[in-house]
Write a structure and sequence with these properties.
Layout lengths: L3 H14 L16 E3 L10 H18 L11 H13 L6 E3 L3 H15 L5 E5 L4 H14 L4 E5 L9 H7 L4 E7 L11 H10 L3 E5 L11 H4 L3 E4 L14 E4 L1 H4 L38 H5 L2 H10 L1 H21 L7 E2 L11 E5 L3 H9 L7 E3 L1 E3 L3 E5 L7 H16 L8
Parallel strand pairs: 1-11, 3-4, 3-5, 5-6, 6-7
Antiparallel strand pairs: 2-8, 7-8, 9-10, 10-13, 12-13
Helix pairs in contact: 1-14, 3-11, 4-5, 12-14
Bound molecules: pyridoxal-5'-phosphate (PLP).
């Protein structure tokens, strides 16, 4: 049986051997007594982002003023999109950074439903992110009689298995939409298998990549995925509420029409014509003026990801989550926890879920400890999940060790009881 000190030495050794360890210094250090395990909700602030935003505000906005639109601002949705494309296996000109995640979902689902004339069924699953399900419910309501949304049930509350998807997909299905990495359990869906199945039945597929982008490699091109969306404020560290992205496979771009006909999606916005005619390429999925300040915050961390390499990041993330799970499996009787994520590394994203009947009180105790104890920030998802997010760009093995040790202490000492 490994002792806690064995794990401490192991964490220190893994940190020494970590080829990505220097990236940690690229992030603004938080309070030294704080262990951040929530990069899957809101990524940390890169040092370069603070500097770059200052420059965008003072130099670009301050000095360039309106000329900024001709000096790069107008190209930003596409330029950032091309960088994100490199992380998700898309080609240049297939990704745009624009609007919010839920809004991009709305735009692309509406476009797909119009394209799939004669088919009125949307298929998703009960473990999908609530906002996605709400948007889908709203679309079915808006499209009116005959349109339906069916949700596949999970057999174990953690995964949606391929057979369930196959059984639920029929010739009436217009669109399948799933999350690639599930927000609660971290389960990674079979993108290649499901996309092929959908196409066989004449349906389109839309993937939500919010919990994958920047931590789990995605290969939209090889899978021939139709559509995708995702956010940039989690592993991509774009800042709170940063602008989202959308992907439309090149051959579909001219065939799909999005529902919000704004001027920047039109063929020639600066002709100021009164009649809308969509742009012929990915630009038709834009709506209005891009939020330059918010979007500028995305680029520095994106560059760090491209430099580190998505496969190297995945390798580290898996090694880190294995280390975390090994520590958990060494706890006597799991201290009352069960693993809420798939045990198989290939089916797990970059966060690990530990489930406990007292999860809410334990999380509170971790975030608000006595003064002489380290603050650990994970997040809680009802009813009993503690999500431990591993951001391989800045989390060390020692972070994981310390976070897990503190969880153990909170549970063994019953310190959490005061938060019940
Ligand atoms: C998987 C997933 N999809 C969609 C959303 C909603 O994104 P937004 O609030 O940017 O619209 C989130 C938010 O956390 C998410 O985790």
């Amino acid at each position: 049986v490994n002792t806690e000190s064995t794990y401490l030495s192991k964490a220190e050794q893994l940190d020494r051997e970590d080829p990505l360890s220097s990236y940690r210094e690229q992030f603004t250090p938080p309070d030294p007594g704080l262990i951040y395990l929530d990069g899957n909700s809101l990524g940390r602030l890169p040092v370069r982002t603070a500097e770059s935003l200052h420059e965008v505000v003072t130099e670009q906005w301050g000095n360039s003023l309106i000329r900024g639109w001709g000096e790069g601002w107008m190209d930003l949705p596409r330029r950032l999109g091309d960088k994100i494309a490199l992380l998700i296996g898309a080609e240049p000109g297939e990704v745009l950074v624009c609007d919010g995640t839920s809004i991009n979902l709305y735009k692309l689902v509406m476009a797909a439903m119009e394209h799939q004339e004669g088919r009125r069924r949307i298929l998703s699953d009960e473990l999908n992110f609530p906002s996605d399900l709400h948007v889908l419910q709203g679309i079915v309501h808006q499209l009116g009689p005959g349109y339906e949304l069916d949700l596949i049930r999970s057999r174990d509350g953690m995964c949606i298995d391929f057979d369930s998807v196959r059984d639920a997909t029929d010739k009436k299905t217009a669109l399948l939409t799933f999350t690639h990495t599930y927000y609660k359990s971290s389960f990674v869906q079979d993108m290649a298998g499901i996309t092929a199945l959908a196409h066989e039945k004449g349906a389109m597929v839309l993937w939500d990549l919010s919990h994958s982008v920047g931590s789990v490699p995605v290969d939209l091109k090889t899978c021939r995925a139709d559509l995708a969306i995702g956010c940039t404020y989690k592993y991509l560290n774009g800042g709170p509420g940063s602008t989202a992205f959308l992907y439309v496979r090149r051959d579909l771009q001219k065939k799909l029409q999005q529902p919000i006909w704004g001027w920047l999606g039109s063929k020639d916005p600066f002709q100021f014509g009164t009649l809308y005619e969509p742009a012929e390429n990915i630009r038709r999925f834009l709506v209005g003026t891009p939020p330059i300040l918010s979007m500028s915050a995305i680029e520095p961390a994106l560059d760090l990801h491209l430099e580190a390499g998505i496969y190297a990041l995945r390798e580290k993330s898996l090694r880190q989550s294995e280390f975390l799970i090994e520590m958990f499996e060494n706890w006597p009787a799991g201290l009352g926890f069960t693993l809420g994520s798939p045990r198989s590394a290939g089916r797990r994203g970059s966060h690990v879920v530990l489930r406990h009947p007292e999860a809410a009180a334990i999380t509170e105790a971790l975030i608000g400890p006595p003064e002489d104890r380290v603050i650990v920030i994970p997040d809680f998802r009802a009813p009993d999940n503690i999500r431990l997010g591993i951001a391989p760009l800045y989390n060390s093995y020692k972070d994981i060790y310390t976070g897990m040790q503190r969880i153990r202490e909170v549970v063994e000492s019953k310190e959490y009881l005061k938060n019940r």
